[in-house]
Amino acid sequence: DLRKQARQLENELDLRLVSFSKLCTSYSSSRDGRRDRYSSDTTPLLNGSSQDRMFETMAVEIEQLLGKLTGINDKMAEYTNSAGVPSLNAALMHTLQRHRDILQDYTHEFHKTKANFLAIRERENLLGSVRKDIESYKSGSGVNNRRTELFLKEHEHLRNSDRLIEETISIAMATKENMTSQRGMLKSIHSKMNTLANRFPAVNSLIQRINLRKRRDSLILGGVIGTCTILLLLYAFH
């Protein structure tokens, strides 16, 4: 009974897979024919919504049949493991393996056909979107060209502004570097002067003594001159 059910499912799967393959082939050929007719760019791209719905429906049905056949194979494996006649185990195992090979072939064929269909549909959708973009561009070429020209001019203005900003930033960076270098030079001179002052304290003390002596000599000279002036005045009036 399980083998009978498996054969029925296999026959049904074989028919469905043939129809599924024909659907994919007709989808590809119809798309190729329409693409040849669209070379003049005068006919809009027709969508394959009906074929897409048929593809989805058939794919779901085939997946369901594959699931049922997998369940039948599992039941046959359980029956083979629990068979009461040892002499029939080899034949049963051979039959089970043959049904498993058939299931594997059908599964592989289904996934291959499905992948081919999806690849063709994705390619056609991409080509259709590109063709629509080209048509929309051609239909509004005047406006698009004007907008493109304005965009290019604005882009050129932005590039000029960026170039001026970059030049200003470069000048500011150069000024900053010069000021930094000058500051470093002043710091080095100040440090050298402090080093010299700390290294020669006797020179500082000598300079201070000289200054004090100059002040003392000036005071003495001033006192002598003042005294002489007073004496001359007293002598004159006497």
From TrEMBL:
Keywords: Golgi apparatus, Membrane, Protein transport, Transmembrane, Transmembrane helix, Transport. It is a single-pass type IV membrane protein. One of its GO terms (biological process) is vesicle fusion. It comes from Upupa epops (Eurasian hoopoe). Pfam families: V-SNARE_C (PF12352). Residues 27-49 are annotated as: Disordered. Its main location: Golgi. CDD domains: SNARE_GS28. PANTHER family: GOLGI SNAP RECEPTOR COMPLEX MEMBER 1, GOS-28 SNARE- RELATED. It is found in: Golgi apparatus membrane. Belongs to the GOSR1 family. It comes from the Eukaryota. GO terms for molecular function: SNAP receptor activity. The keyword Transmembrane helix applies. This is Golgi SNAP receptor complex member 1. The keyword Transmembrane applies. The chain crosses the membrane at residues 219-237. Involved in transport from the ER to the Golgi apparatus as well as in intra-Golgi transport. It belongs to a super-family of proteins called t-SNAREs or soluble NSF (N-ethylmaleimide-sensitive factor) attachment protein receptor. May play a protective role against hydrogen peroxide induced cytotoxicity under glutathione depleted conditions in neuronal cells by regulating the intracellular ROS levels via inhibition of p38 MAPK (MAPK11, MAPK12, MAPK13 and MAPK14). Participates in docking and fusion stage of ER to cis-Golgi transport. One of its GO terms (cellular component) is cis-Golgi network. The gene is Gosr1. Signal peptide: none annotated. The lineage of its organism: Eukaryota, Metazoa, Chordata, Craniata, Vertebrata.
